[in-house]
Amino acid sequence: MTARPLDAARDALIALQGQLIAMLAAQNAALAGRVAELEDRLARLERAASRNSGNSSLPPSMDDQPGRTPPPGKPQRGKRNPGKQPGTPGAYLAWSQDPDQAVPHFPRGACACGADLAGAADLGVAAPHQEVEIPEMTAQVIQHDVHEVACRCGRVHRAAVPAGAGAPGTVTYGVSVQAWCVYLMAAHAIPVHRAAELIAALTGAEPSPGFVHGLLARAATAVWQANALIRALVILARVVCADETPIRVGPGPKTRKKYLLVACTNLLTYYFLGDRSLGTFEAFVLPDLTGAVVHDRYQNYDKFPGITHQLCCQHLLRDLADAAQSYPGAAWPVQAAEALQALIHQANVAREQGLAAVPAEAAAEHLKLFRHGVLAGLSAVRRLPGAKVQQPPARLLLECLHDREDDVLRFLSDLRIPPTSNQAERDVRPAKTQQKISGRLRSEQATRHRYAIRGYISTAAKHGISIFTALRDAIAGNPWMPPIPASA
């Protein structure tokens, strides 16, 4: 029996309908995938825009960039009156009992009787006044005449040439002028041309920008031995804070950058210029360290055996603040952060009491809250399936807090270890200041010279040594050397 034409048309229509349904399903699946992709991109963009100095490692200078959400203001603890606060030491100009100069002032003119006051009797000082003033400085040309003398035995002796005097018959700038140039460039990030202009305005000497720039290499060579000793003392230190920051180096596009690494203590500062590769970290101080390192948990720090780790709690608190923003209804980020802050406070209290570790009873309740908060977060933020799938930042943070608890809370058992790498962040901050003021340096080598000098003067300043004096002594051939502790 043959099919009727109506049945054939119906079957064709059903087949066409099936094809349309399949096509629409495929389009819907593609659209769903595209929507998911766009939602993921939007989430990443919103996350990037929400990151600031309060919830990430970004510096405060990045908070005012267009589209970036600034961190919430700190809660006010009551209105503070301007000026000196109660309990803080005052600052004022004290009266000097031994002034450098006394200038007498006498009345001038004539008395009402017509007598000239120049012949009047002196009755003494009626009202003394003191002011602190800088005398006008003018660069002087000093000629060093090096004499020879003949001994009775016939031997001829020539006097030693002063440091920085140059070759016979030539003119050079003295040690103090050179030290001032280096001081302005290295200690205060003054650009080369402005440093030359400042020296000319203040002293009358007019060194060329080329001469001023060349002093970076001379000063870096002068402090080489001191920096070698600083590096050795950093390696031998029981606790070292470490950090790294990107800086623009040399001519070329803005994207050209290096990384400045710092390893420091409260008495030492050592800089190293490279990148964030393992090779740079191997050339740094890390392979030789045997003490504890406080760092921001960048993966390269974990590549060196024998190092004891303390993860920077300030970075962890920023990441917990970011997690609190990403999961606004969750309690675990706030609980873990508040417990960690309480543990840091207990460490500070114990340190002030002269203890070696935080007493167990002082930390017990806070440890319990911290661990419970981490476990609650791990149960709420699950790992995404797939070996190569990028995990949520909060999940990675929680796994770090759980799996590396000893490295997170090591400061509780050894109060010599600080809970944060704030010392290292303070020591790399001048690099950002220099970059804002001067931009990139002329060459990578000049950058190395600058931070060789900065490590030297930073270490000297931590020991209470005048930076200018340390620079002047180094240029004169007698650099200040950090003392070697008895335990080293």
Any chance you could write out the topology, listing elements then pairs?
Blueprint: H1 5-50, E1 148-150, E2 156-158, H2 175-188, H3 192-203, H4 209-222, H5 224-236, E3 239-248, E4 257-264, E5 269-274, H6 278-283, E6 292-295, E7 308-311, H7 313-326, H8 332-352, H9 360-380, H10 393-403, H11 405-408, H12 410-413, H13 422-438, H14 444-462, H15 467-475
Parallel strand pairs: 3-6, 6-7
Antiparallel strand pairs: 1-2, 3-4, 4-5
Helix pairs in contact: 2-3, 2-4, 2-15, 3-4, 4-14, 5-14, 7-8, 8-9, 9-10, 14-15
Q: Write down the overall geometry.
A: elongated
Report strand order across the widest sheet: 5-4-3-6-7
Output the helix-strand order: HEEHHHHEEEHEEHHHHHHHHH
What is the typical, i.e. mean, pLDDT? 88
The assigned structural class equals alpha/beta
Radius of gyration: 34 Å
* Main sheet properties: 5 strands, mixed
If helices are DSSP runs of H or I spanning 4 or more residues, what is the number of helices?
15
User: Could you give the distance between the termini?
Assistant: 106 Å
Number of strands: 7
Percent helix range: 40-55%
| Uncertain spans | none
